[in-house]
């Protein structure tokens, strides 16, 4: 219609068929038409073909044809040859210059008939009944296409042919822009289109919409949210104005700045505090700015012998917050000194900071000593407001006279048929000059019905006139000018039958003295110190303990409702602590009993689609390949962080089986202290095992990194978790065989979980393995003697390993048995040597370790007993405060070498050592094997 000149479409036949004719339209404007009107001749087949039409990305095109058609009845004299329809064809082609019409290659779109026909041509009246017909056709295979009109004997004039396609127009929905989009190929097809967030907005959920075949947008999904500092207005994101802020994209809109804060510029994400006001890191931006508290008020002290009760009132001004806490500092001033020039004497245990109560009892102070206590008040913004901002109040007190504390342990140095030689250490707190010791003893069978008393000025006594082969009970107490202290707990020793001089002691006693005995024995038998290099570290730690002991003169206990340490309170509320012993627990199934390993894996582990896993970084190296961290978004679940172990390429069948066996084992467990299996990827390579992600990695490395940074309660909390996991495993009849701190993982809440399953069973069941081979593979330092000697792996051997883990934890990741070699470790264990208590280790914990290391496995505690014991300790943190003092003074520098040798009964070596140049304890620490 719009082409002014000749169209020159191809026609066939080129003459006598379709012809290009100019006519006048109803408005008398000349237009081009193609006409044909061979109604009188039979067998018409006249083709008219358009020029090549480029497709331009369209997949379905619409053809709108306007034409006029004569009614056959109106034509005088026509016979049956007259038709009232024509056919529309198309042909897809990359070729834009096809010269002639290849009829066979055209495909029929439709037969088109007129809605309106006209019976007579009355050009004078310009009666033209124009028909408009639209047809659509899918064109997807070539760059373009041709259309053709086939006439079979009608009288037609084509007036206009319009070819077009449809798009869904550019639009913005849910703050996402969707571009102008061409519709799909089929009438029912929906084209999925991803939107892009408008300026200053971010994706909330992937914005998507469907473009329908008719060019209409359907079903918007997801969308974007205005960035922090911006809010939605009329489909765009506009900056918050001054005085307003928006912190998170999910906040509904800009909000007014909270009290004591302001924003000066547009687009604020947070309001700044007015000067003198602060916000803590954990305060939400919607919270008012606050101030630190004023000082605590009315601090009063009541002295009771060597304890002081301190009580105070809360600060007058709380600064607009409710998180006031107190910390206590103790300055000790030696009697006779002036002013507050004393030593700061806060214990390492920080639980004294963060007090919520306003009453504290400080006990076990020195008698007759002047102390100054300072109580600081702080809240969440004390730190932000500057270091000196903690407000404080102080009080000075002088403690009263007090009797000595009890003697903590007694040892027998010589035993005969009728006598016992005993020695002991000075009480931890003598509270004055010790004038004498009183020794009370009686035959065990007699109880205290008849006892004898001996007094001595020294720290040893020879008790004679005893009956042979009889067990005696001894108590010792010290006396100062303030009177007698309390008696020690009972210590039992037995006289012998008169043979060699042996020391028969109670079990506890025996254990406590093992360290001294081994040292003793080795010096005697080998003439040199047994593995002295290992003792060097023990000894050094004793020196530290002793030094610290001197500094930590103040120890604190809170009364009534002691504030729980955060990790402690979470422990108490953990479901595992409260859960009863489950009756009829599930029993673990060994995946190696399945002939087909894939059957086991699919029974116990969920197959995960690899597209749900997003790997982020490498975090470690496992037995079979890299371990990575990443995210898992399972369908219908929220995204979680995971660890991903993969099996490196080129693996053997056996390696595949071993790799997947860990998942088959793990998948059977469900416990808060066992690493949780999320699933496996076995359907594509590399094979993967997906587990929950443990932010702090393995326990040994974690402890080494944070040496000395946890409270005893926190350490016991970790041990409790491990014991709880092990109890669960043992209830399921699963023996771990490789329990060690390196195989425990720690998450961000310090929760410890047992991991690494399936490695060691392979060692045990390999009948080919020779003794020496096995010894090389077995983690000797962690393994019970019966498991090393004859592969007797049981829950009781796991208990032994647990004892070693306890030692690793309390010593912050020290290597068990230090640099001793494996053979020496096996030999030392055989001879009765056990690891000594690590630095700062509460006696009860070391005792529990020693119980786990009983030679006779039937005598070791069960995990259930260990768990009960640890729960008791957690509930009574007081029991954890006492430190092992096996030989605490042994390495205090003030001690002479001579005194120390004497204290362990080896003074006869004094001259030999002196001759070799060892005259002080310090020099002895440098002693090597050589
Ligand atoms: P494994 O093969 O289990 O010994 O893993 C090797 C190392 O990867 C471990 O020592 C950890 O440091 C790290 N790792 C393994 N599993 C996890 C996990 N679930 N979360 C965090 N780190 C892990």
Overall residue-averaged pLDDT value: 81
The CATH superfamily of the largest domain appears as Transferase(Phosphotransferase) domain 1
Question: For the report, how would you describe the main beta sheet?
Answer: 6 strands, antiparallel
Oligomerization state of this entry? single chain
Structural class: alpha+beta
CATH architecture grouping of the largest domain: Orthogonal Bundle
| CATH topology label of the largest domain | Transferase(Phosphotransferase), domain 1
Approximately how much beta-strand content do the residues carry?
25-35%
Task: Describe the overall structure.
By secondary structure, the protein is of the alpha+beta class. The chain has seven domains: 10-165, Sandwich (Jelly Rolls); 168-226, Immunoglobulin-like, CATH 2.60.40; 291-332 and 351-381 and 391-400, Immunoglobulins (Immunoglobulin-like), CATH 2.60.40; 410-495, Immunoglobulin-like; 591-692, Phosphorylase Kinase, domain 1 (2-Layer Sandwich); 697-761 and 778-880, Transferase(Phosphotransferase) domain 1 (Transferase(Phosphotransferase), domain 1); 897-926, no CATH class. The strands form 14 sheets. Strands 1, 4, 5, 7, 8 and 10 form a six-stranded antiparallel sheet that branches. Strand 48 (744-746) and strand 49 (752-754) form a beta hairpin. Helix 8 runs antiparallel to helix 12 (795-810) and helix 12 (795-810) runs antiparallel to helix 14. The radius of gyration is 46 Å and the shape is elongated. The chain starts with 9 loop residues before the first strand and ends in a 5-residue tail after the last helix. The model is unreliable at 334-351, 500-584, 762-776 and 882-894 (pLDDT under 50).
